[in-house]
Amino acid sequence: MATAQERIVLISGGAGGAGLAIVQIFAEQGDRVFVIDRAVAEHRVTELGLHQVSFIAADVFDESQVEATIKQVLDAAGRVDVLVNVVGGYAAGQPIHELETATWENMLELNLRATFLLAKHAARPMIAQRWGRIINFAARAGRTTDATTGGYAVAKAGVLALTEVQSKELLPYHITVNAILPSIIDTPANRASMPNAHFDRWPQPVEVARVIRFLASDDAVLISGAGIPVYGQG
Length: 234
Known about the structure:
- By secondary structure, the protein is an alpha/beta fold.
- It has a single domain, classed as NAD(P)-binding Rossmann-like Domain (Rossmann fold, 3-Layer(aba) Sandwich), CATH 3.40.50.
- It contains 7 helices and 7 strands.
- The chain has helices spanning about 15-30, 40-50, 65-75, 100-130, 150-170, 190-195, 205-215, and strands at about 10, 30-35, 55, 80-85, 130-135, 175-180, 225-230.
- Helix 3 (about 65-75) packs parallel to helix 4 (about 100-130) and helix 4 (about 100-130) packs parallel to helix 5.
- The protein is globular and about 50 Å long.
- The model has no long low-confidence stretch (mean pLDDT about 85).
């Protein structure tokens, strides 16, 4: 079992508003963090003064690149202890009978394919070391759906199903798999897209990051297969 000071943490989409808070909370407790994103953005971490963070530019929708990324982390750090799947995207506004097939497919790729690929390949070294934590980003829409959110809601429901299935598969190896279900996280991008919303009701990125940190800890050893709401008042 890895101690908190020794953990190797992989975070997909860690350069965004929510992702960066997760990177920061793990790095500040002494973990070594690898951020997987399409673009390398070390300046975001440099501005925060975090030195134990590495960026890997990779397309997390391409299985060969995901596999190569896991190998790169293993070569550099020798193990994979925690995976946080942040990558995702949102599109809504069309009822199912008007929904563009391209939008439907894009939602499945953004929100489900990358989560599947990273969880698949990160699980393998975790199985070998017989310890690990996988935390996926689902969403409230994956459990409580609204009209015109078809592609997004179905993809996030798929993340919940993936979480439950893999949690059962990995239980014998002391690996937990859980998902968080945010509502709308208070990020600059979300504020810009919804300027008239009640921002004070949204959960802060650091609050969501604290829940993820707990799920990655030894204290959460009994929790696996869960979908945990992080709605705030929003």
